[in-house]
Write a structure and sequence with these properties.
- The chain is mainly β.
- 15% of the residues lie in helices and 37% in strands.
- The chain has five helices and 18 strands.
- A ten-stranded mixed beta sheet has the order 3-9-8-5-6-15-14-17-18-12.
- The two termini are 23 Å apart.
- Bound molecules: copper (II) ion.
- Copper (II) ion (CU) binds next to loops.
C-alpha cells in the first residue's frame, strides 16, 4: 500500500475500544449470568468496486469480530459514525476535495479537518499484500448507525453498508492479544517492539489530536527508521536502496481514544510500523514526518 497515492485514502476511515467489553464477570456477582453476551461476527468480502457484509446488521453496542476477505488485490475496510448534521454526502465531498490534488490545497486541508471533526473513526482492516485475509475486532461503543466502507479508494467510491447498533446490554469477551502498539500525540508509535509473526495485537490511538492507523511493512533485516523515512520520501522511483520486502498488513484509521485488535499471519522478520494518515495542518502523511518505528515479528 505504501507505493500508492491512494494510501492516503486509507487513512480517512475508522475505530474502537474505549468501552471494550470488560472481560468475564466475577463469579457470584448478581450480574454474572446476564453479563457475558456473544460477539457478533462479520465476514466482509471486497473487490475494489464492491463490499458485502455477511452476519448480523443489527446488534447491541460493544465489540464486533471482523474478517476481511479480499477477492482481488489489497483491500481495506473501515468503520465509522457520522456526527449529527453531517451526512455521508458531506463526507464523500470532503474526502474528494482533499484527494483531488496530489499536493493538498488549503481548501483540501479544510475539507480533511471537517471530516475529522464530524466523523468518529472506529478502525478497520487492511489485508495487505501476499494474502487474502486479515481479521480482528473493533468496538462500536454506543447505539447509533455505523457505516462500513470499502476504503480501497477512499470513502465514496462504493456505497457503504449500514450497521444498526442498539444500546449496550452486556459484556463481550475481550480477545487475547499478545502485544500492544500505541499511537501518541507526538505522531509516533510506542509499545511493544516485538510482535507475533502470527497472532493478535492491540492497536490503540492514545493521541489527543489526530486519527492514526497502523501499517506493518516487512523490511530488510538491519533497516533503520531513517532509511525507511528516506525511502518513503524518495517515492517509488527514488534513487536510494529499497528497504521493503513482501509482507504487509494493517488497520484502517482509528480515532482518538479508540482501540481495536488485529489478527494476521506474516513472515517473521524486521518490520516498519507506519502511519499514512494526513497531517491536519499540512496534509503530509505522518510517516513522512517520522511516524515510523522498527519492530520485530517473531
Ligand atoms: Cu498517524
Amino acid at each position: 500500500m505504501i507505493h500508492r497515492t491512494s494510501t492516503l485514502a486509507v487513512a480517512a476511515a475508522a475505530t474502537a475500544g474505549l468501552l471494550a467489553a470488560g472481560g468475564a464477570p466475577a463469579l457470584g456477582s448478581p450480574h454474572a449470568r446476564a453479563a457475558l453476551i456473544s460477539t457478533p461476527k462479520l465476514v466482509i468480502h471486497e473487490t475494489s468496486s464492491t463490499i458485502t457484509v455477511k452476519g448480523p446488521h443489527r446488534f447491541s453496542a460493544g465489540r464486533v469480530s471482523v474478517t476481511l476477505i479480499a477477492h482481488k488485490g489489497e483491500q481495506e475496510v473501515g468503520f465509522f459514525r457520522l456526527h449529527k448534521g453531517y451526512t455521508y454526502a458531506d463526507a464523500k465531498r470532503d474526502f474528494a476535495a482533499f484527494f483531488s490534488s496530489q499536493t493538498p490545497t488549503p481548501a483540501g486541508i479544510k475539507a480533511l479537518n471537517r471530516v475529522v471533526r464530524h466523523v468518529t473513526l472506529y478502525g478497520g482492516f487492511d489485508t495487505g499484500t501476499g494474502h487474502k485475509t486479515v481479521s480482528g475486532s473493533v468496538v462500536l461503543p454506543r447505539a447509533g448507525t455505523y457505516l462500513v466502507i470499502n476504503d480501497d479508494q477512499g470513502p465514496g467510491s462504493v456505497p457503504p453498508v449500514r450497521l444498526h447498533v442498539t444500546k449496550r446490554v452486556g459484556n463481550r469477551v475481550t480477545p487475547t492479544s499478545s502485544a500492544t502498539v500505541k499511537a501518541i500525540t507526538a505522531k509516533r508509535f510506542r509499545g511493544a517492539t516485538t510482535l507475533p509473526a502470527a497472532g493478535t495485537i492491540t492497536f490503540k490511538n492514545e493521541s489527543t489530536n489526530s486519527p492514526h492507523f497502523l501499517a506493518l511493512q516487512h523490511v530488510k533485516a538491519g533497516t533503520t527508521r531513517k532509511q525507511v523515512i528516506a525511502a518513503l520520501n524518495s517515492g517509488p522511483g527514488g534513487s536510494g536502496p529499497n528497504p521493503f520486502e513482501n509482507g504487509t498488513a494493517g488497520t484502517d484509521a482509528l480515532g482518538m481514544g479508540q482501540s481495536q485488535t488485529l489478527t494476521y499471519k506474516l513472515p517473521a522478520g524486521t518490520y516498519a510500523e507506519m502511519c499514512f494518515f494526513p497531517d491536519l495542518q499540512t496534509g503530509m502523511p505522518h510517516a513522512l514526518m517520522g511516524m515510523v518505528r522498527i519492530v520485530h515479528l517473531r
